[in-house]
């Protein structure tokens, strides 16, 4: 990929115990995109982030940050990357302003009070600049972590479970912050347990399971490629069991026999819907309502992980 700001090839991590946390992951992150990395607990999401950020040493493979090896030229890599970890680790007795200012200095950036002020205002933290970290709510602490990660003006921002333990309203605020960062040109990679977060925010989605990247696609392409639709017929009379004449459609009954469900591939040459409806009519099965629903990203994610585990 020509416009990859981050290029990962054959990235592996194995521990002395024999556990393989990552298995030859290949991934390109495009400049200026929001990339969501989904996966169950222990799938390797945090390991991948920690390797790219220089916290964990890989067992093999390469990571290029804007064309430069992240191990050979680690100063370049670290200056380009900001990380907001899952854990809220801050000095409880420091003020918001000094916490963020100190973080900028750690990366060798000269003092720039105007830039810090702009950053804190953008994250709605300026009014809290004198407050001690211990006095802040969980949501505000999360904002400070983002401010710390952005204090040295990185081009790439990693958000590891940015809305974990945050209420719905603050989660929405966080999404707004991420959108603003993207509009500023920041490349964002986020891991999340909230599928709706990826569906709402991401340009592309990757799915990782047991250390392997099993999908990485534009969100809409992934949903079109793997998405299925569900046809639901609300029956005039409840059905105790599905007639044998309907066996070829692999139907399911829901709502104590009141709803007949048919799942089909939207991209198939023949969906089977017209023939199903004809057969239902021929059998004299009456229905009061008919509805279809497109698979969500959550359905797709669950399906992919289930397939991977079944191998």
- The secondary structure category is alpha/beta
**Total number of β-strand segments?**
14
Mind summarizing the main beta sheet?
Answer: 6 strands, mixed
DSSP helical segment count: 10
CATH architecture of the largest domain: 3-Layer(aba) Sandwich
- Distance between the ends: 30 Å
| CATH 4th-level superfamily of the largest domain | P-loop containing nucleotide triphosphate hydrolases
Broad shape: elongated
| Helicity level | 25-40%
Q: Using the coordinates shown, work out and report the CATH topology of the largest domain.
A: Rossmann fold
CATH top-level class of the largest domain = Alpha Beta
Q: Indicate the radius of gyration in whole angstroms.
A: 24 Å
Spatial strand arrangement across the major sheet = 6-7-8-3-9-10
Please give the domain count.
Answer: 2
Mean pLDDT: 86
Helix-strand pattern: EEEHEEHEHHHEHEHEEHEEEHEH
Provide keyphrases for this structure.
elongated; Alpha-Beta Plaits; 311 residues; ABC transporter ATP-binding protein; single chain; ATP binding; alpha/beta; ABC_transporter-like_ATP-bd; ABC_transporter-like_CS; Rossmann fold; 10 helices; ATP-binding; six-stranded mixed sheet
Molecular structure report:
With 311 residues, the protein is an alpha/beta fold. It has 2 domains: 4-224, P-loop containing nucleotide triphosphate hydrolases (Rossmann fold); 228-294, Alpha-Beta Plaits, CATH 3.30.70. It is 33% helix and 29% strand. It has helices at residues 45-52, 74-80, 96-106, 113-122, 138-150, 168-183, 195-201, 219-226, 273-282, 297-310, and strands at 4-14, 20-30, 34-38, 60-65, 68-69, 81-84, 156-160, 187-192, 204-209, 212-218, 228-235, 252-254, 259-265, 287-294. The strands form 3 sheets. It has a 6-stranded mixed beta sheet with strand order 6-7-8-3-9-10, with helices on both faces. It has a 4-stranded antiparallel beta sheet with strand order 2-1-4-5, covered by helices on one side. Strand 4 (60-65) and strand 5 form a beta hairpin. Helix 3 (96-106) packs parallel to helix 5 (138-150). The model has no long low-confidence stretch (mean pLDDT 86).
